Predict the 3D structure of the following.
Amino acid sequence: MSDQRSVAGIVLAAGSSTRMGRNKLLLRVGGETLVRHAVRVAGEAGLDPVILVTGRFRDAVEREVEDLACAPVFNPDHETGIQTSVACGVAAAPAACGAALVMLPDMPFVTARMVRTLVERRAETGAPLIVSRYGGEVNAPPILYGRSLFGEISRMRAGCGREVVRRHHDRASLVDWPADRLRDLDRPDEYESVRRELSGAGSRSGDVP
């Protein structure tokens, strides 16, 4: 799109799952794997293209989503930190995209409605940075970055865009979500808790109440 309204989705799936002790991207919650959930949510929200950044578990992750509309991109530097995966995803965003929205697969309570809300906020405000804020306190993904910030993202030294968010906080538009939407899965006990919760609810992605 020549007017750069298109927003790319960047799903970060290059981690080594060290704290989980196994590949958490293929763990199932609510009837599907974490990585499949994230890619599907990005597509349902209208992000185009959906860029899947892979790393250590490249082959297994790509097989898991091979029937979904996404563009896998391998990050050869994935062991050096998540910032290299963000930069890799941004570099793969087509020139027609005016923004990119970064998502983490280990946040199963992020829904397509949440992602669409961030995209709509950008259209309404024109802000170069749209940040999810949980419980009125914590800034975390999904986060939308306008193309004017891509260069800074590529030069990040650490973190999932935290440097860029701090630097441009006065230009950002914050979108508030309930604190419980922030839950992520790093350890086995966190996974078991969420797996039981979502299995009992029979939910796949749902929408924010």
